[in-house]
Amino acid sequence: MEVTRIKRALIGKPFPTSHESHERLDKIRGLAVFASDPISSNAYATEAIMAVLIVMGSGALWITLPLAIGVAALVLLVIFSYIQTILHYPTGGGSYIVAMDNLGRWPALVAGAALLTDYILTVSVSSAAGVRAITSAIPALKEYSVLLAIGAILFIAWINLRGMRESGSVFAIPTYAFVAGVLLVIVIGLVRYLGLFGASPLPVESVVVEPLHPVTGAALLWLLLRAFAGGCTALTGIEAISDGVPAFKRPESINAAKTMIVMGIIAMSLFLGITFLATHMSLVPSEHQSLLSLMTREITGDGLIYIWVQLFTALILLLAANTGFQDFPRLSSFLARDGFMPRWMQSRGDRLVFSSGIVMLTALSIGMIIIFRANEIKMLPLYALGVMLAFTLSQSGMFKLFGKIATLKPDEIVKTSFTQIHGETGTSWKRAVSLVGATVTGIVFVILVATKFVEGAWAVALIIPLLVIVFDQISKHYDRVAEALSTRGLSDKDLITLANVVLVPIADVHKGTIQALQYASRLSSDVRAVCIVTSPEMHERLLRRWNRFPELTANLQLVMIDYDFRDILEPLVEYIERVNTEEFPHQKITIVIPEFIATSAMARVLHNQTAGLLRKRLRNQEDLVIIDVPYHIREDDEPGADE
């Protein structure tokens, strides 16, 4: 009861299943829940490009803007593809469902593994980046970065366990406050850049960084590709809305698609605005202060706007982890439904969320924080790799889907594994865009692997195929279980035979064993109380107590096995096996085990150790039915002996 009260205080009262429609999100909350990751990535995407280009000196940082425009164009392609995914797959699932429906089992498992990996990194990187924003403003907190990041993850997990609608309400304010604050900085910066309204000129950084060494030819191309790959962190989280379409209010797909469009407009406006101003101000990335912090301070000073932006940058970076908390559990439920993850991953908790997935993600992301010491720069090379692979597979699947649609007449409807496709016009250009998107994201994926492999991307390149193997093995296990439980071809003659014998292991005769014997006598006329006797005194005491209850024991058989060693489980298990294999071969026999139920945790440690070990030994034996008969011990009970 204490555990239940604590759970209710932390999580809240359980929601009935019929309450699910009330937990769905409108577009305003949906944007806060699903788009916080791609919006928040603007806090470091520009800096990720500059961090690579600075090798060629501060004079090369002007290339940041053309690369950012290229990234923005790629974002538009991906957003278009996912809008089509939302409209054609309104049940959600994103890349995994599209790949399963159009490309087959193995590409779908690769997409699922890639996205799960990316969601773990989303939580880890976002929380670490949020902590960095805090320590940029308050350097004294830097030594507590790991603890702060873990605390942030636990907080977000707690909010998500309380329900989707509640998490949307909590995260809406920081998301929109961040957008408003950064847009205000960009507007002020542009006004100063253009010299409007008599504003002072935009400040230009005077710091000059010399090139480490001359870069030309292949080395130059390599650096540009690395910088572009770094900017592709702006794409992380874009697929989140397509995974969570059912979370939106009706009409789900329309609301999700509109939210996707708004997300793209906001995210790219911030990204290009920050990049434009940073390059024209000749800002240089620093280890001690984030680029956004430096830009905001130079444009607005250290006043209210700077504090506002830093505060909500930290909050949205921390809360961007919520994208992972929304989609990791949901995608896990899809994989579990199809037999590729444990079945219990598809069960909803008291508040109609996938609690098991939330808990699993919390543990995995905290592990990443500890391993990388809350350093998001070290984790960034692992980031975006999985999501680019998922983008490529998703858009390839949509390319194939549009090919199927193109073969249908306008009034034709064909049902696939996960959706219905309708004959429609204008699929040629949609198919072409999907092809271009798949090709570009595929190239970016190769670039990411090539440029960041030695920096840590090798770990993701290894984890994804390992996860695919695990998914496949889980599926094979469930297939074996289904085959073993199948009733195909089963006749009455093949039904399991239950032996008319019940064995009751006892160590003494007391209230607990008497209750178990009474229960066993209801099951069979052949009940045997089995006791391992280790001394003459024990033999005499057991017989004396047994004979005290003639009405109970008259129809029961007492089997006493003399044993001169201490391990009483060994002869007991041997006797049970002998009865099972020699007296009743190929039949189920029943074992009734007395068990004490104590009132306190300390008391429970003092009881049932032998019973627990016996259950573990017997569960490995075939043809045994094990029944526990509990006896609840009150404070005034004084059992004569343990069972």
The CATH H-level superfamily of the largest domain is: Amino acid/polyamine transporter I
Q: From the alpha carbons, calculate the radius of gyration and give it in angstroms.
A: 32 Å
Which CATH architecture of the largest domain would you pick?
Answer: Up-down Bundle
Rounded mean pLDDT is 85
Strand order across the largest sheet: 5-4-3-6-7
Question: What number of domains?
Answer: 2
Describe it for me?
- By secondary structure, the chain is of the alpha/beta class.
- It folds into 2 domains: 26-479, Amino acid/polyamine transporter I; 492-632, 3-Layer(aba) Sandwich (Rossmann fold), CATH 3.40.50.
- Helices cover 62% and strands 7% of the residues.
- The chain has 25 helices and 7 strands.
- The chain has helices spanning 2-11, 27-34, 36-40, 45-53, 64-88, 94-102, 105-137, 145-161, 164-194, 217-231, 240-243, 252-280, 291-300, 304-319, 321-337, 355-372, 376-379, 385-406, 427-485, 511-523, 536-546, 550-553, 569-583, 601-605, 609-619; strands at residues 413-415, 420-422, 498-505, 527-533, 557-562, 588-597, 624-632.
- The protein has a 5-stranded parallel sheet with strand order 5-4-3-6-7, sandwiched between helices. A two-stranded antiparallel sheet has the order 1-2.
- Helix 9 (164-194) runs parallel beside helix 12 (252-280) and helix 9 (164-194) crosses helix 14 (304-319).
- The longest helix is centred in the last third of the chain and has 59 residues, at 427-485.
- Residues 638-643 have low confidence and may be disordered.
